[in-house]
Amino acid sequence: MTRILLLGGTGDALKIARQLGPTHVYSLAGLGKVPDDLRCAVRVGGFGGSDGLARYIDSERIGLVIDATHPYAARISANAAHASRAAGVPCWALRRPAWQPRTGDDWRMVDTWNELVDALAPFRRPLLTLGREPLAHLDEIPPHQFWTVRVLDAHPDTARSRTLAARGPFTLDGERALFALQAFDVVVSKNSGGGATEAKLEVAHERGLPVVMLRRPTLPEVEREFVSVAELLNALHEYSRDAEPE
């Protein structure tokens, strides 16, 4: 029986984890709520880089690694690919298709934080949905700007910023109300991708707001890539009977 190590932390990863039996391991970095309704084992915390992950794969007799982490978790994805090769086991990855702008969208693509700051210069009330990274730059907010930063956990407000502690997915009506109340004039987002465009991008489209979009990092090559949970689960069904959906 092939033992699976699933690297997760995303909603898609949790969907996969719910189909795994007790032989397999679902690994989380430790951020957010740890699910308590899984049949598989749950491991929380890091591995100590690619070398530590390779040792774990070997010691726990892992036969397949699945990288279902966030598209921007480039370091974890690189460690997974490198460790799998070092341990001599295959690595699969769930790589959600990136969102694409539609006619009428004003997406401004950036690669770095400095480029992002430059792109924000003309605006006054940005909504930043990048996770915790903006919190490290609150003392750099220009005098003419007021930032709203949406994160998982609460953080103290400042004179020129507020945090919204919330976990998605967010509804279209909820985002419409938030945008109207806060009068955002630009949205800052990662291109997380997936089957449906996030509500914040729909509302930005409706209101004609620019979106400063952080490009995805380059991710390593792996043995197999999948664009949806269903596609990956079908492959698992063929690969390991123990991973067959109920």
Folded structure, characterized:
With 246 residues, the chain is of the alpha/beta class. The chain folds into two domains: 4-96 and 217-243, NAD(P)-binding Rossmann-like Domain (Rossmann fold, 3-Layer(aba) Sandwich); 107-214, Rossmann fold (3-Layer(aba) Sandwich). The chain has helices at residues 11-17, 49-59, 74-87, 113-120, 172-182, 199-207, 229-239; strands spanning 4-7, 25-28, 41-44, 64-67, 91-94, 107-110, 126-129, 147-151, 161-165, 186-190, 211-214, 224-226. The chain has a six-stranded parallel beta sheet, with helices on both faces. It is elongated, with a radius of gyration of 20 Å. Residues 242-246 have low confidence and may be disordered.
What overall geometry do the principal axes of the alpha carbons give?
A: elongated
Total beta-strand segments: 12
Poorly predicted spans: 242-246
Task: Spell the H/E element sequence.
Answer: EHEEHEHEEHEEEHEHEEH
Provide the structure class. Answer: alpha/beta
Strands of the widest sheet, in order across it, are 3-2-1-4-5-12
Q: For this structure, what is the CATH homologous superfamily of the largest domain?
A: NAD(P)-binding Rossmann-like Domain
Question: Average pLDDT, to the nearest integer?
Answer: 93
Question: What's the architecture of the largest domain, going by CATH?
Answer: 3-Layer(aba) Sandwich
Organism: Paraburkholderia antibiotica
Protein name: Cobalt-precorrin-6A reductase
Pfam families: CbiJ
GO molecular function: precorrin-6A reductase activity
